[in-house]
Records
---
Amino acid sequence: MRNVTLTDLFQHPITQKYLQRSGVAHAIEVTNHAFHLAFKYNVSVDLATKAALLHDIGHYEWYRQGKWDYELYRKNDIHAIKGAERAHKLLIRLGENPQNAKVISVAILLHTDSYLPEIDINRSPLQKVVKLADEMDEEQAGKHHYKQIDKVTALEKIQHLDELVERYLSKQQLPLDNQEKLM
Ligand SMILES: [Fe+2]
């Protein structure tokens, strides 16, 4: 059992507030991609899905006269830094293991190059998973941030992802031959 579930994170008012800016539907899609990519890259499904769910909670609203101003956003955005910090605070507050909170937070910090100077980053497999999962849901002109989902469906999807993560984690604790029987 995990100390903190995706549902705990998703339902928290902090997450609800900031996901309204960056898009609940986008966060859920990225979490779903991260779940599948975690197997391919052999990284923790628990950490990958949590980082994916929270990866965009650092967004500020770059509105000018009622419209999102991409020029202003490109110049001034630091959403990955803000998101990493917000996610860390939230995870610790909810009782996440501090080492997990750090790993998730750093994966959020490095999920995009958009705010970074021109340097090559050698990302860990977990950090790659979160970046790739985000890119898999990206649409032109930031349209992925505007996709809609109703509240009931969103919560159901998150709860389903929690079940998948729990099922996978409990399977991992079984002896190898029992694991195969469950596949
Ligand atoms: Fe994103």
---
Amino acid sequence: MKRFVLAVVFAAIASHSPADVLYLHTPYSPAGLAPSSWVEPDDSDSDQYTWDAFTLASGGTVTQVKWRGGYQLGAPYGHVTGFVIGFWPSNSYGGEPDVLAHPVEYSVRGLAGESYVGTFNGIAMYEYTMNISPGFVAEPGIKYWIQIEGSQTTYPDWGLAWGVGGDGSNFRYIRGYHMFFNYSHDTTFSLIGTSPCTGAGVVQDPVGVGTCAAGSAEFLASGSGTGPLAYQWERETSPGSNEFVALSDGSTGSWDGGGPGVGAIVLGSDTDTLTISADSGNGLRLAPVHAVRYRCTISNGCGSASSVGALLSVCFADFNCDGGVNTLDVLGFLNAWSTQAEAGDFNHDGAVNTLDVLAFLNAWSTGC
Ligand SMILES: [Ca+2]
Ligand SMILES: [Ca+2]
Ligand SMILES: [Ca+2]
């Protein structure tokens, strides 16, 4: 394979970058080296070219590359004199780089900020940094191959540190053999740059749920977009108002009016699953104030979206909470009413009297 440097861009050594780590392989232990250096021009049987694969799920623009490497023989003919970084497409089945393709290449003269980080498994290791401009644009979900190639004089003994975080192998061309090989171990490098942020959207809207006054209801929502996604459930301030305010976990006492026997518990108000339950532990029930629409607002760093509102229907006539409305509910209500139990205060006015019988029978005859 004859090596051509097609696009050469000299880039300054990084001083700082505000960008994010888009992709990362960390050092393998015990340490080892994947040979990846050559003597210019490509004329040594000891020249070796190592590729390693990466995929950015959300895509991104790589503006800086960091990597770790060392010298197999201790650099008897000197340290690197420069680096070429190439980004290569995959071949048709994705298992190897397309070695006949024209890579997008960047090169730098000098040591690329070579900095000693320690000796591991007997190998002195160095870290390197190179800014690349214009950045390499990686499409979402596409597998690319990066080749980080050191230049040396006389004899190439530089290699990339073994790494972890990829598929566990590297791909290599060895000039003396004129062959390509798959070797164990990823290589240690990281890609820094910017990732496009996709605004949050709603994938799954909550659906209306029915329950009884002593029951509970669950609403689900899910979102899309660049993570992390934040979920915030909201309640409609009054039926049909289409005005929503954020919910917080715990008692609904701050907004349910605090009527006699009225109370519920909110759970999961900042997750993808909202639960609203009668506060049975305190002998309290769901009331019409709870029977409104609930929606979820999903947000991330670059946008937010609100789901549709899903109605919580409370079947007050199903007094015994068995899912049906029948004479057993009448018996259950009259039992509570005759014993002056709090549940007998059907209209939540603080008194158990004939108004409750009327209110219950009205609800019961209407049904659910
Ligand atoms: Ca790999
Ligand atoms: Ca019933
Ligand atoms: Ca009453």
